[in-house]
Design brief:
Radius of gyration: 21 Å
Order of helices and strands: EHEEEHHEHEHEHEEHEEHEHEEHHHH
Strand order of the largest sheet: 3-4-2-1-5-6-7-8
CATH topology of the largest domain: Rossmann fold
CATH architecture of the largest domain: 3-Layer(aba) Sandwich
Largest sheet: 8 strands, mixed
Number of helices: 13
CATH class of the largest domain: Alpha Beta
Structural class: alpha/beta
Number of domains: 2
Amino acid sequence: MHRASPRIAIVVEAIPPHCGGAEQVAWIQATHMARRFDVSVVTLGESDSVAEVDGVVVHTLPKRRRNLLAYLTGDRAKLNGRIADIAPDVIHCHMPNELALCLDAGNSLLVMTIHDGVPENEQLALRTKSLPRWLRFKAIRRANIRKSARVTCVSQHNRQTMQGLYPGHAHKMSSIPNPIYDRFFSEPRASDRGYVLNFGRQIPLKVEPLLETARIMPDTRFVFVGTGPSVRDHGLTNVEFAGFSAAVEEHIDGASACVFPSMSENFPLVGLEAMARGKPVVATRRGFSEYIEDGENGLLLNSTDPAEIREAIGRVLGDGSLRARISRNARATAEDYRADRIVDRYIELYRSARPETFGP
């Protein structure tokens, strides 16, 4: 008897192009799984619509001023009506928040993926959330963990943190890293133009240490690609803010090194994207140590002190043999994070929980 193709609904509150790394991961998963299964994405946007994009059926629900209140009350029937129409075998929520809390999974396998850049037990200390927002976040997180059948974390460190915070649900938790877009493995589009590059969300926790480094390296050009509150005039003539770019590969190709002295990471895509294009990466240990071995396929920083960052940049720019070896090893490391390989791990997770749907 022919088995119908499994149906997967991926729930994420934004999709590319204007979104963060976690939303990009959800979209990579959706488009790659759509080659083998019936895949829908449920997301938030300006209007109520259904459209097919890259083989994925995208169900857009209206974004409300107060999403939690809206989708707990009047819009809840709309959300769960969409889920019922999809009739998914698996519901997979990335960055589970209000929509995950308000949906009714029914008999579907409910999987949630945690992407916390700052672990939830550090958010108050680092002031990434106020106390009221953190308490609200914790209540939603606790409820979502409780209702899920499986929870994946994108880094080993975050999995260990989550198992410590939710010991009663530790058995549900595993680690599956983030994939990167295939386009980052394409041939170079530009030649090395000698600048230091940072790309991604331009927020103080991610870029302020590098801006301070630029201040003490006036003869080195620094380029920042992305948007955020740190994009403003810092009085530095050697700093360029290039804004949002849909073709960040060209900026990577023109760089001599990519530098990410971030204090807010879990499993950062930016490092692997640069490595896939054969660029040496200098980064903090938080998140980046999941795939960088210091001195072999990149350089790891022990702090965000500008003097240490300057020294590491100087090592990479001043030692051609080191740069060549790191670049070669970086590209080899990135191969392990191609989308098909990571998506296969998600499918194995589904299969382990629902062999009758996905096969033994």
